């Protein structure tokens, strides 16, 4: 089996090395390089990674700008944003630019490896800490978004249940356990949800859940 190619983009050499060592321990993953933001587009064109781990904050070229350039490529890689903070003001911009996930730099090694595998398989990664702090912080305090409420009105009752848990940052397996469903069934529900919401990935769907007041409503009812 051909290993999944991974590129790490961060302005700090020590961070690139540390993340590279963690990801590179997995036999099915291959770290093909590391660079700062200004070199990222060229490296992606030359090395064709399937997954890019991209720092949000870099001095030469910020992560949002890099993300936009990578998403504009003919065959863009899956990009997960790396951040030191569990609250980051760039969350909304990154979501709209097509980020496939958010990870804290101190994510546990096994969770980081798992996240890369999920990204390589076409999924999105949304760690619970990021879902509950970054995304909640992004929408907290505002009234329910009427557009988001209209979108979620297209969903069935079970799809609303799944979306609410997705908004809390739960994985497919965790959602399946909570709702007593098979993981395959949850995956089918999420595919249907993304289509009905017009969301590119589960990260965007989670934000819609928060904006619609769905996650808060479910928690208040517990």
UniProtKB/TrEMBL annotation:
Residues 148-213 form the HTH luxR-type domain. Gene3D superfamilies: 3.40.50.2300. The modification 4-aspartylphosphate is found at residue 55. Transmembrane segments: none annotated. GO terms for biological process: phosphorelay signal transduction system; regulation of DNA-templated transcription. Residues 5-120 form the Response regulatory domain. SMART domains: HTH_LUXR (SM00421), REC (SM00448). Keywords: DNA-binding, Phosphoprotein, Transcription, Transcription regulation. InterPro entries: CheY-like_superfamily, NreC/VraR/RcsB-like_REC, Sig_transdc_resp-reg_C-effctor, Sig_transdc_resp-reg_receiver, Tscrpt_reg_LuxR_C, WalR-like. GO terms for molecular function: DNA binding. The keyword Cytoplasm does not apply. PANTHER family: TRANSCRIPTIONAL REGULATORY PROTEIN NARL-RELATED, TWO-COMPONENT RESPONSE REGULATOR. This is Putative two-component system response regulator. It comes from Kitasatospora setae (strain ATCC 33774 / DSM 43861 / JCM 3304 / KCC A-0304 / NBRC 14216 / KM-6054) (Streptomyces setae).
């Amino acid at each position: 089996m051909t290993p999944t190619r991974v590129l790490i983009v961060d302005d700090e050499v020590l961070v690139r090395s540390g993340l590279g060592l963690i990801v590179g321990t997995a036999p099915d993953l291959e770290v093909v390089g590391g660079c700062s933001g200004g070199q990222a587009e060229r490296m992606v064109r030359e090395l064709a990674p399937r997954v890019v781990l991209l720092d949000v904050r870099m001095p030469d070229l910020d992560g949002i700008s890099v993300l936009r350039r990578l998403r504009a490529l003919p065959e863009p890689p899956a990009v997960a944003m790396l951040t030191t903070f569990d609250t980051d003001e760039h969350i909304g911009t990154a979501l709209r630019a097509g980020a496939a996930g958010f990870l804290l730099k101190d994510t546990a090694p096994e969770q980081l490896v798992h996240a890369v595998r999920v990204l390589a398989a076409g999924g999105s990664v949304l760690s619970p800490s990021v879902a509950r702090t970054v995304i909640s912080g992004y929408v907290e305090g505002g009234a329910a978004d009427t557009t988001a409420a209209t979108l979620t009105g297209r969903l069935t009752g079970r799809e609303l249940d799944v979306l609410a848990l997705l908004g809390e940052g739960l994985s497919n397996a965790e959602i399946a356990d909570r709702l007593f469903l098979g993981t395959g069934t949850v995956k089918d529900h999420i595919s249907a949800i993304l289509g009905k919401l017009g969301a590119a990935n589960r990260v965007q769907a989670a934000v819609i859940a928060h904006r619609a007041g769905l996650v808060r409503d479910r928690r208040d009812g517990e």
